Each structure stands twice: as C-alpha cells, then as structure tokens.
Amino acid sequence: MATILYGRVSTIEQTSDHQLTQARAAGFKIDDAVFDNGTSGVSTRLVERPEGRRLFDKLRAGDVLVVRWVDRLGRNYDDVVGTIREFMQRGVIIKTVINSMTFDGATKDPIQKAVRDALIGFMAATAQAQAEATKAAQRAGIDHAKANSQGYRGRKPSYTRDQFATARDMLTQNAAISQIANATKLSRQTIYRIKDDPAAAEAALATWGA
C-alpha cells in the first residue's frame, strides 16, 4: 500500500515543493507524488490531465490518495463527485490536507454511507463555487492592474501567491483565523483583509506582478 500525493501547479497555484511540504507538515508520509503542471483544473477533467491519467493507472486498492482539497480531483461538482466515487469503488482511500477529511468505501451501513455521500456532495459544490469565485477575483485583479499600470500601484502586498492561495482555501473551509495564521505565517490583520475583500487581495498581487 502506498500513500500518493496528487497536486496541480499553474501560474496561480502553489509550487509542487510547497504542496509536498504542506502534506508532510500535516502528518502524511508521502511515498510518491504526482503533479500536473500548467493544467487548468477549472476546464480539464482529472482523467484528461497528463499526470491525472497516470494517477488513475498508479492507484491500487488499499492505497491512500492525498490531495490539498477535493477541488484537485475535478473541474466541477459532477466531475469531483464522480472521481471520488470511482476511487472509492477501487478501494482507494482519499484524504485531504485541509481539514483532514477521509473518504473510503469501507462502510456498508446505509446511514453512514448517506452521511458520507452528502458530505462529498457538499464539499464538491463548495469547491466549484470557490473555483468560480477565484476566477472572478483573478479577472478583477487583472483589470485593476491594467487600469493602474501607469499610476500608483498602492502598497505592496505583505503575502505571497502561495500564502494567499492557502489562506483563501482555508477561509473557504471556515478554518479559524488563528489556524490560518499558523499555516501561512501571516498576521491576523492580513488574513482579515483577504477574507473581507479577496478580489482586492488578488488585485494587489496582480498589480505587483506577484
């Protein structure tokens, strides 16, 4: 049995090293890691991504698949739910770095299965909503950067792209501000600014080319 981390890296996401460090810091002993580079999770199904296809081939019954969050497993609600169900049917255990969620197909109790499936559906819907909100914030950031390209850029953001992505994800999952501060090494004030106006936080990164 192997523990495999799957991640996605693009121009706006965390680096593979950062995602691997996060997983290990959360207590996972990673045997292998698979990353798709420069592939959009919003428009591309997992099985259609180059390394996503390899992931399907690698995983066996009893293996543990680790992902930062369920949005890594599909482009929308139906895709995420379908992927999780397929892996569970294969006997693969799915675990998330954020909030330490676990999904497997071991339970046969109908009530437990109903609760599990409802939770999967909720998380998949949340992931899609987050992806759409992020895309809108990115467009706003680019527009803001273009509008201010010849003028004052404002204060340089005190957070990196990686820190912003982590804070945004954890805020979406209703993590405590103190927990996010520990994970990102950002001040509580900075996290509140990101929470109150994620579009402006994204715009600041775009304006400064971060």
UniProtKB/TrEMBL annotation:
UniProt entry tagged with the keyword DNA-binding: yes
PROSITE patterns with a match to the protein in the record: RECOMBINASES_2, RECOMBINASES_3
Signal peptide as annotated in the record: none
SUPFAM superfamilies: Homeodomain-like, Resolvase-like
Domain of life, per lineage: Bacteria
GO BP, one annotated term: DNA integration
Active site feature: S10 (o-(5'-phospho-dna)-serine intermediate)
PANTHER family xref list: DNA-INVERTASE FROM LAMBDOID PROPHAGE, RESOLVASE HOMOLOG YNEB
Protein name: Site-specific DNA recombinase
Origin species: Bradyrhizobium yuanmingense
